TrEMBL record:
Residues engaged in binding (2R)-2-phosphoglycerate: Q154, K327, R356, S357, K378
SMART domains hit by this protein: Enolase_C (SM01192), Enolase_N (SM01193)
Keyword Electron transport carried by entry: no
Entry's family note: Belongs to the enolase family.
CC terms in the record's Gene Ontology section: cell surface; cytoplasm; extracellular region
Main EC class the enzyme belongs to: lyase
Organism in which the protein naturally occurs: Halobellus rubicundus
One Gene Ontology term from the biological process aspect of the record: glycolytic process
Catalytic reaction equation(s): (2R)-2-phosphoglycerate = phosphoenolpyruvate + H2O
Official protein name in the record: Enolase
InterPro entries linked: Enolase (IPR000941), Enolase-like_C_sf (IPR036849), Enolase-like_N (IPR029017), Enolase_C (IPR020810), Enolase_CS (IPR020809), Enolase_N (IPR020811)
Subcellular location: Cytoplasm; Secreted; Cell surface
Any one Gene Ontology molecular-function term assigned to this protein's record: phosphopyruvate hydratase activity
Pathway it works in: Carbohydrate degradation; glycolysis; pyruvate from D-glyceraldehyde 3-phosphate: step 4/5
């Protein structure tokens, strides 16, 4: 029933206005799935390779589609993803492009769910999923590679850890985002938005900490449940070997100073989450920081692990980080993303399912987070491509998908 009868690929727009790959998968019994690849700006060096979408589509049409149509079953995700790997023939998807691969992998999962008549999260995670939900990490202030002339730290993330429901958590992040706008206004700071819809004000990181802290406390008092915040430092983008460390405008911090700085911020602001506090090659620095503050906060590897089982294993051996960001397009297929999640679980690492800065209306990651019982999902706060996922979480909780 789930035998793949057709795969169609096309270029569509992403939220930055760039082209990306969209895939339609149709099964012989009429099951249908559609998904599109997201795209990063602060990409990790070790991510699977995203090709120019036109080239990725041409390569997938030549190599992948013939292996899928009439041969692979959309309901058998491992079979689909193995066919994608075989068609690609490399270890980084540089043959057909991770963008083609992930779009097809996710579209096949949706087609499989469609044939079953089950919501995607149940097809991926089993019938008993859908009872617990991830805490949404909401990007409310940011800069780095996502906005010019704003903070050096890429993302300040609201985390409504005490919200009684996922819906209240989603609205809490929107309330923090709105409160920040008022606080910036009071300070006379004009703010545009960055790629993910976070405010991108021309203020120092120190001032951003103050503003976010105040907005979170105000919203917490207003709503009556605990809200904390965290960071994605995207430190690989700050790190410059020639400069001798992490570059914050005119200031350069050595690795030791960077570790001290992050540890101090964790203590001062009671941060619940710090992603990529050190360079993507610095397992040792990650291990040292995890040793210092890992009992109090999540130290998460994004560019460090790139959703890659091999790199995660190295991190586990080194004691680097205590959580992993999961981005299916970093590794190319849902099966590979699941393997990373499983390995993380077995070793006590928290999992955080994530969007990219360049997104589409695709909602797969909302289902993936519920299917795998992830502790957190990072998918922005406002903006249609972000609310697509957040609203899908609300629908899943409401049994309306
Ligand atoms: O660094 C990140 O975690 C992501 C998403 O927030 O950004 P990008 O997609 O640009 O890599
Ligand atoms: Mg990141």
């Amino acid at each position: 029933m789930t035998l793949i009868a057709n795969v169609a690929l096309r270029r569509v727009l992403d939220s930055r206005g760039n082209p990306t790959v969209e895939a339609d998968v149709l099964t012989e019994s009429g099951g249908f799935g559609r998904a599109a690849a997201p795209s990063g700006a602060s990409t990790g060096e070790y991510e699977a390779i995203e090709l120019d979408p036109a080239k990725a589509i041409a390569a997938a049409r030549e190599h992948a589609i013939p292996r899928l149509v009439g041969d692979a079953h959309a309901g058998n995700q491992r079979e689909v993803d193995a066919a994608l790997h075989a068609a690609d023939g490399t270890d980084d998807f540089s043959g057909i492009g991770a963008n083609s691969a992930v779009a097809i992998s996710m579209a096949a999962a949706k087609a499989g769910a469609d044939v079953l008549g089950a919501p995607l999260y149940q097809h991926l995670g089993g019938t008993f999923r859908g009872e617990s939900f991830p805490t949404p990490l909401g990007n409310v202030v940011g800069g780095g590679e996502h906005a010019k002339e704003a903070t050096h730290i890429q993302e300040f993330l609201a985390a409504p850890v005490g919200a009684p429901s996922v819906s209240e958590a989603v609205f809490a992040n929107a309330a923090v985002h709105a409160r920040i706008s008022e606080l910036l206004d009071e300070r006379g700071v004009p703010a545009a938005k960055g790629d993910e819809g976070a405010w991108a004000p021309p203020i120092s990181d120190a001032e951003a900490f103050e503003v976010v802290d105040e907005a979170v406390s105000d919203t917490e008092s207003e709503l009556g449940f605990e809200i904390r915040f965290g960071l994605d430092m995207a430190a690989a983008e700050l790190y410059d070997e020639d400069a001798g460390g992490y570059v914050y405008g005119d200031e350069v911090k050595s690795t030791a100073e960077q570790v001290d700085y992050v540890a101090e911020m964790v203590a001062e602001y009671d941060l619940v989450y710090v992603e990529d506090p050190l360079d993507e090659d610095d397992y040792e620095g990650f291990a040292e920081l995890t040793d210092r503050v890992g009992d109090r906060t999540l130290i998460c590897g994004d560019d460090l692990f790139v959703t890659n089982v091999g790199r995660l294993r190295d991190g586990i051996d080194a004691g680097a980080a205590n959580s992993i960001l999961i981005k299916p397009n970093q590794i190319g297929t849902l099966s590979d993303a699941f393997d990373a999640i499983e390995l993380a679980r077995e070793n006590g690492y928290e999992t955080v399912v994530s969007h990219r800065s360049g997104e589409t209306e695709d909602t797969t990651i909302a289902h993936l987070a519920v299917a795998t019982d992830a502790g957190f999902i990072k998918t922005g706060t406002v903006g249609g491509e972000r609310t697509a996922k957040l609203n899908e979480l609300i629908r899943i909780a409401d049994d309306a998908v």
